[in-house]
Prior knowledge:
By secondary structure, chain A is mainly beta. Chain A has strands spanning 4-7, 10-14, 19-25, 32-38, 45-51, 56-59, 62-67, 72-77, 86-92, 103-104, 108-113. Helix content of chain A is 0%, strand content 54%.
Amino acid sequence: xxxxxxxxxxxxxxxxxxxxxxxxxxxxxxxxxxxxxxxxxxxxxxxxxxxxxxxxxxxxxxxxxxxxxxxxxxxxxxxxxxxxxxxxxxxxxxxxxxxxxxxxxxxxxxxxxx
Amino acid sequence: xxxxxxxxxxxxxxxxxxxxxxxxxxxxxxxxxxxxxxxxxxxxxxxxxxxxxxxxxxxxxxxxxxxxxxxxxxxxxxxxxxxxxxxxxxxxxxxxxxxxxxxxxxxxxxxxxxx
Lengths: 114, 115
């Protein structure tokens, strides 16, 4: 089955700096890669996603890049703000799965200091 | 739209008791997923259900765990004879009939503590 590794486990930045979180996956047939933000006491919320036929996607201060050859994808947050502080999870869906059976990374605790 | 509703939000059980966690999907959603999050870990898929059908239970432990999604009422995740290792946050997600992972909506979770 699919295996997703996420790094770093914790990330501390100053307000205004950029933050990058990286994930690798094992199943070359995986075709969908979402990123979730989880705030304390809440469920994960989808913040951005990318499909395997796209190399990069951007939404305001958030961007995701995908390297299919190397089987890794990254989340980039620019101009970080204190409200970006949360746990971020990457995930992947194995090729051939048409429903929401996600394999999650271990999570990154992002702290943005004012 | 109230979103995915889970209850109870917090549940404390002693070893050997039963835990029942309920999930009401978003309006218009008929597919339900259960995920488990152990402390300081990512979420792990447990089971995928449609009304009255278990579609994929490959992530469910073989014993003590069961899930259902009846024709009427919420989906229920049942854990019998709980042990301390069952302490975790259990998240439910739902999606519409035509959607996949890109339209999953997660609930706020039920946090089970086993004493």
